[in-house]
Amino acid sequence: MLRLFPLAFALALAAVPAAQPAFPDSLDLFLMAGQSNAVGAGGNPALAPTPARGTAYLVRVLTDSLGPQGGPFVELVTVRPNTLVGGTALPTFAVEYAERTGRPTAFLQTAFGGTSNVAAADRGRGHWSARELGPGAGGGPNRFQLAIDLLDAFLENAPDGMPALRLAGLFWIQGETDAHEIDRGRIRTADYRQDFRATLTALADTLAARAGYPVPIYVVQIGHLASGDTPGFEQVRAVQADSEAAAGYSLVCDHAHTFPEIGLMADDAHWNQLGLNHAGLELAVAAAADAPPRPVNTADEDGPAPAPLRVLGNPGRRGARFSAPVTGVVVDARGRVVARLDGALATPELAPGTYAVRTAAGAVRFTIAR
Prior knowledge:
- By secondary structure, this protein is α/β, with parallel strands linked by helices.
- The protein is built from 8 helices and 13 strands.
- The longest helix has 23 residues.
- The protein is globular, with a radius of gyration of 21 Å.
- The protein starts with 25 loop residues before the first strand and ends with a strand.
- The N terminus and C terminus are likely disordered.
């Protein structure tokens, strides 16, 4: 089994096949857990940005295929939006995270659509309860244990040429199934609160044991159905907001409940690609703040070059405020000047859409200031 060290853990290196591209020296590894919006069902992956080569990889673990050492076959695949079926938040995360930190990423997807957190809410797709490690009420498996098993399979069966890895965080997007079952009376809000806190605490403890240091967990707060909000969804959102201090995670993207009214739903239950892009952007902002500092480039006293113009999804409602440490004109997706930005801008005149900021020094991004 691989040894894990503070801030970095080494994986055994082997000769790299001639056809395999060289990996970067190190990667930040993130796990994705939860249900369908964590898997990604945006329906249009072409609307996701494309990470630069060498900056983002997807971990594939084939546990039913034996590798050269007799264990599961593991590989790293370069992230491209069209390789992630259905669309996901990960390409946007990878692009933004690399720009903010200079660090390339690897992703281990453990989420599974239709899963619950509470075992009694299981509909046959599985549950994430750390308190009930057996099958759920519908006969589904325990996804918490399966996710940890998948992580261990990866750590113990490194592919050839694997670089050093830093276990950098876990993303959690889940709660819709439990909200439905609260509405149906199969579970109580108290049941969800107890299991949610226990599961997130157990994930934090388990990841810290693997890494040898605390591993951040980022919870994307659920929204609600496009057809309307319900008491179950309201209560799940409240538990996710209220449990942040108790379970030790960071709550991000706490406005997914506005996605239906601003056109960020693919169907009644799932976020479209622009919604997923926004979740990925917010995750990247949070994770970048927790990453080790970017190495100082002493050879370039003028600092980094201006970021290229990149139009991002903007899920802000009327009256939202945008911020950037620059002054410049705000342009829409067609390049039309629609406003001017001077540090911060109230935008009651802007409809939800896609925007960027152009300045005298080049072009930069701007993000929502809540």
